[in-house]
Amino acid sequence: MNNQTVVIIGAGVAGLSSAWWLSELGWNVIVIEKNTDLRASGYMLGLSGPGYSAIEKMGMLEALQKHQYRYQVDKNEYFNTKGRKIFSLNIEKIWGSIKILMLSRTDLVNELYIKASEKKNIDIKFSCLVTSFENNADNAKVYLSDGSAITADLVIGADGVNSQVRKALFPTQDSKSREYLGYKVAAFATDEVAEQVKNFKSFSEPGRIVELYPVGKDKSAGLYLWKSSSNAVITSPSIKRAELTAQFSNSHPLIKRKISSLDDASPLFFDNLVMIDLPKWSQGRVVLIGDSAHCLTLLSGQGAGIAMISSYLLAKSLQRYGINQGLEDHEKRLRPVIVRLQERSRKLATWFIPASKLSFNLRNLVVRLMPNALIGWFFLRAIRSDIIAASLDEAS
């Protein structure tokens, strides 16, 4: 029986996935989450390739499918700021035979939490901060804000793109690893009748895009992205709302109405579009995973999926080779895929949100003339790296 202990910092997609897989292998798992509860804000995501493979391996497909009904849409319609349709994409033709599950990050994390909570060897602690940790040759010691300390065989930093574990583990590399792509992003849901937001509605202009989608009969959500030369981190709710209001002041009335409905209590995801590119993901008995180690940005469309499948691959590497060699094996297998996906995200930023009027009009012309099936073919090529990641363990 495995009597090893792992401390996982962060109860998000990567943290809860890692907790479940290691508990399956008999590890004693302690998850530390600084917030009082699971994060309620977030955007819609699609689990395809590695993500779909991961939820099948975890036996979560049926549980997650019950959330997908709210995102059953047929088209992605693109409009300009005046509401004139630029072009429309048939979603079924684009996806073709690709297996994909559309749901919100909130739904995914909630189901992962339920899955992890069923395990007797997983202890999840909320409202708990890691104040420091010792990284020793044969163990790691984690000191908590309540004055207690935990000695563990392994510590996993799964605390996201703004990881404090990464900052402590690689103090000279942390700032260098943060690659700002020149955009800010926000996401939130509002009450809206279904007729107002039916299908995916994308309101696009040079340097800005808003993606709206239904999340039920009387609710819709949106993803807001805009080009910004400033990478300053905004924390104040009122300043976040002011920034959104200013950036989309000339947008469609539907967009402005949604932004004006926000208040200080509204769940709002707001951040810089940042990629994390580290030369190494582990040191001693501490390893980073998910966005903490290699944030792909939402432009990749595979961040959550890669976080889930990398948790699985990490557990398998640890099972086969032990901690030290297992951490090396995990990174050796996954890093080539991450490098390709990050390069794709850099290129997609200029395509997804063209900054100039010329590039904006050119993008629209190309998409209008390109058959939906051909767009789907390009997408399938784009996720092949992810499919490789999902099958890396079987390839050994």
From TrEMBL:
Q: Which domain of life is it from?
A: Bacteria
Residues of the FAD-binding domain: 5-319
Q: Which GO terms describe its molecular function?
A: FAD binding
PANTHER family linked to this entry: OXIDOREDUCTASE-RELATED
What is the protein named? 2-polyprenyl-6-methoxyphenol hydroxylase-like FAD-dependent oxidoreductase
Q: What is the organism of origin for this protein?
A: Marinomonas rhizomae
